[in-house]
Protein: Core-2/I-branching beta-1,6-N-acetylglucosaminyltransferase family protein
Amino acid sequence: MKMTVVEIEEGAKDNAASTLKSRLANQSRALLSMRLLQILLLFLVLTLGISLVGVHMIKFLKIQPLAPVAPTTLISALDHGTVSLESFIRPPSNVWHTMNDTELLWRASMEPRRKVYPFKRVPKLAFMFLTKGPLPFAPLWEMFFKGHEGLYSIYVHALPNYKSNLSRSSVFYRRYIPSQAVHWGEMSMCEAERRLLANALLDFSNEWFVLVSESCVPLRGFSFVYSYVSGSRYSFMGSADEEGPDGRGRYRDGMEPEITLGQWRKGSQWFEIKRALALEIVQDTTYYPKFKEFCKPPCYVDEHYFPTMLSMKHRIFLANRTLTWTDWSRGGAHPATFGKADITETFLKKLPGAKACLYNDQRSQVCYLFARKFAPSALEPLLELAHKILGL
Ligand SMILES: *[C@@H]1O[C@H](CO)[C@@H](O)[C@H](O)[C@H]1NC(C)=O
Ligand SMILES: *[C@@H]1O[C@H](CO)[C@@H](O)[C@H](O)[C@H]1NC(C)=O
Ligand SMILES: *[C@@H]1O[C@H](CO)[C@@H](O)[C@H](O)[C@H]1NC(C)=O
Structure:
């Protein structure tokens, strides 16, 4: 700028001087431009260097950018923002979580649409225990599961304020899921079952889902149960169109048009279903409000919601029977309970075949794999007979 001003001022003087001056000015201008360019280049090299070093530092020190807020429910906290398959498919070591039911059900309803897994998937049996708190038959179940690690997962739904004091070595240790109060015969019972299913669905390897209660005991060893369930074409959900006040009599007209009397089904609360049907249950927002509003005692919703809902779209997948033996012969709203004095070898031996049934459309000797209800006093004789009867 200064140079230009000088040039204009002295432009009025003689021509020769003026030419020399302007040449000098041109030279110094070129020199200045060179300087500027050099400084600019130096600056460029410097910034480039700094950013390169920075990038390397980030990589070296494993400083990761903050994870975006929205997808945190899909990407595990262990990811630190880097999406990897490993962290997505690894089941959480602790089943406790901070999701409420709305969040849990949404997340559990995710289903891979590609049928081939890009990792070695060993299908597991998920055992879902619905209890008030304690598990009186835990020692028997411990024997049942022993040696079959990797083929099963366990989930326990207890009353919300129940504190278990299990030892670290127990298969039930840290398997209690976040729960809510359950009232017998009410929708909260189905909600608890749905909560168990949703938690179990978070593990991609769980393929079959068995619901049992604290008063349930196994009638066969784990290997037998695993091959019986995995080899079945059907899911063991009871689903019958029953006449009378305890069947069709519990239907309410208000359920139409979603549910008609002809679609109304009844089945045992204790079921075993495959993954596709479990997904169907956690994603349901059509039938749930109808059952919640219209099926109240003496309509025991746990005997109708899943059997009716699943038989509408998936009846060809249902065995229409349960795997859990229960004695209703004494009548009333609750089945018979068996205690210490009832447990004999003869009694236990006849339970699996207590009623005729079909397995994969063939007549089968074994129809029941579990039985209820048993009082805690039955534990001792059951443990004594476990080796002989259950092959444990
Ligand atoms: C769960 O939390 C979400 C987000 O705060 C909320 O919209 C939803 O209503 C909650 N659901 C329940 C059942 O509390
Ligand atoms: C758990 O607590 C109960 C009583 O509160 C006790 O009888 C039992 O032995 C405890 N079990 C373990 C494994 O500590
Ligand atoms: C179960 O019952 C349905 C009718 O509700 C029927 O279509 C299906 O074939 C039955 N399943 C078996 C295994 O018999």
